[in-house]
Structures are given as structure tokens and as C-alpha cells.
Amino acid sequence: MSAPDPAGAEQRAPEQRAPAPPTPVPPIPELRRRIVVFGDVIDDIVVVPQEPVRPDTDTSSSIRHRAGGSAANVAAWLGSLDAPVALVGIVGAEDVDRHTAGLAAFGVRPLIDGHPELPTGTIVVIVDGERRTMLTERGANSRLDPRRVTDELLDGAAVLHLTGYSIVDSPDPDALADLVRRATRCGVAVSVDPASAGYILDFGVSRFLDAMSGAALVFPNLDEGRALTGESDPLEVAASLGRRFRVVALTRGADGAIVVQDGGAPVIVPAVPSRILDPTGAGDAFCAGFLSAWSTLPDAVAAAKAGVRVAERAVTAIGGRPRR
Predict the structure, then answer these.
(1) How many CB atoms are located within 10 Å of the residue 207 CB?
(2) CA-based angle 140:143:146, to the nearest 5?
(3) Which end of the chain is more exposed for a tag (fewer CB within 10 A), N or C?
(4) Phi then psi dihedrals of residue 122, to 5 deg
């Protein structure tokens, strides 16, 4: 029997259809990373006594002038971490250029107004080891208008970050509540750093919690958490807040942070050991490290680990912002 004719076999093969073109793959949407920070811009005077403070006479001290403010510090740290960030704030009219340039140097988009009459807010920070005493003049910060955060600015943002100072100082609480609603409608997660246990108690706990309604992430320190919950044990504080907010990161200084996400069990994240020179702004640095990581991957424990690493950098320098 003769071998089959290859040519004939080719002629008898069924007709081959050209492969269909691949289905177009939709483009991957751009990851939301931009963070909008709304809040205080401050001039800090940081005092580190070199000996026990002696009333009615001189005490040798290190005294340094630094730009500060919880919101502005968070923005500066975010910029230093290469996170896209805009800050909406207000200072005395004569200080607009100085604070704008200072924040821009960290990569922040500064949207800073100048008040024609009130001075830039100022805080005298007296450092005693891991503790601080703060003497505060809010100044122009008390006139910061939530309507300065436009829908265009919120569009495409990942997070709107507020501080408790903006809550207790707001000249228009309804406008602040509207800002939170607008952010939520835009798909922007709202985060709040309560910022001051003393101001929370002065303002009223229930009233403060109502003002935080709509926030997804909260960053209290232990004193603030105790004020907000009435609990004493850190784990109970975190668990109580975790029943109200999606993400809680309770900061505890040298003891690290406790994290609760989506009502789960509290998780302890240890601090990074360091030599503490000035704890001013450590909580702000933690917020920045957390938000920068969380906006990339919304895992609260991983974000808190990033936060404590940035906080470790903060406590080794005078003032609340990164070294340049």
C-alpha cells in the first residue's frame, strides 16, 4: 500500500478559520492614592529643658522654632513618603508664602489662605522625656472654612484626613458635616485624628462623636481613646471604638499601636525601639505612614507597621516634620 499523498491530505482537511481577535482588556483604573488633608497649620516653639524647670528663675533649655500643626505635619510626612497629597489650611496673611514654600518643599500641594486679622496659630511645646505640655493659641485656624475643600479636589482622592482641632474649632459645624458627606459621596474614605483629649472633654464627648460620624478611619492616642469611650484598658478602648468605626489605630507611644479592622479582634503592633528626642508629631508621622500604606493596600495591620516605622523617625528629631 502506497503512502498517502501529503498534498491530497492537505486538500481534504477541513477549512481552518482564522482565530478571533482577543477581547480587548479594559484598562486598569488608576489606583486612588491622593490624600487631601484639611486642618491646622501652626508655628511651634519647642522647648526642651536641660534641667528640672525652676519656677521664678531661669532654666537652661533648648528652644527651637519649627513649622507645625497636626494636619500640616501629616501632609509633610505624606509628601516625604512620595504620597500625592494636598493640604487645605489657613494662616495669618503675612505668613502665607512662608508656609506655602515650607510645605511645597516636602512635595505637598499647599492650598493655604491668609487671614487678614488673626495671626498664624502658635503652640509652645514643653518636652519632658516622652511627655509634652502644650500652650496653644489657635489663631487663624479657627476660621478655616470646610467649603475650601471642593468636589473637584475630592474627585479621585483616596482619603480625606481631618483632625479634631478642625472639629472643635469649626466656625460652621454644618459645613464640616457636609464636607464629610461630600467626601463619602465621592467614594473618599474619611479619616480623623481626634488630636486632643482636653479639647474633646471641653467640647463634649457625645457631641464630638456625632461630629466624627461618617469617618471610616480613626487615629486616637490612648488618652483620646479613653476620653471617647470611657474605657481604661487599651484593648477595651480599641475594641469599643472598633464597634463604631471601620478602622481604628490606637497609638500608645513606646508601646506601639493597637489595630481593629472591620470589627475584628484587636491586634497589637509593637513600636520600633528608638532614642526619643522629641515626641512632638509622632502621632502625625504614624498617621502619614499608615495612610500612605493603606491607600495602596487597605490592610490595617500592615499599614500600622508602616506607621510605627515612620513614627520612629519622627521622635529622633526636634519638631513634628521630617528632616529635609
Answers:
(1) 13
(2) 130
(3) N
(4) -140, 140
Alpha helix stretches (DSSP H) within the chain: 6-12, 70-80, 96-104, 151-154, 164-169, 173-185, 197-203, 205-211, 222-229, 234-242, 282-294, 300-314
User: For the chain, which residues score pLDDT lower than 70?
Assistant: 1-32
Q: Which candidate, 243, 177, 166, places its Cα nearest to that of 210?
A: 177
6 grid coordinates: 501529503
CB 166 within 8 A of CB 38: yes
> For 200-234, what is each residue's pLDDT tens digit?
999 999 999 999 999 999 999 999 999 999 999 99
Per this entry, what is the length of the chain? 324
Strands (E), the chain: 35-38, 42-49, 61-68, 85-92, 109-115, 121-128, 131-137, 159-163, 189-193, 217-218, 247-251, 257-261, 267-269
Spatial separation of the C-alpha atoms in residues 199 and 69, rounded to whole Å: 15
- DSSP letter at 214 equals T
pLDDT tens for each residue of 243-253: 999 999 999 98
* Res 275: pLDDT: 81
pLDDT of the residue at 32: 65
Quote helix, strand, coil % in the chain, to nearest 5. Answer: 40, 25, 40
| Cβ(238)–Cβ(251) below 8 Å | no
Beta pairing, strands 121-128 & 131-137: antiparallel
In sequence order, which ranges of 41-95 are alpha helices (DSSP H)? 70-80
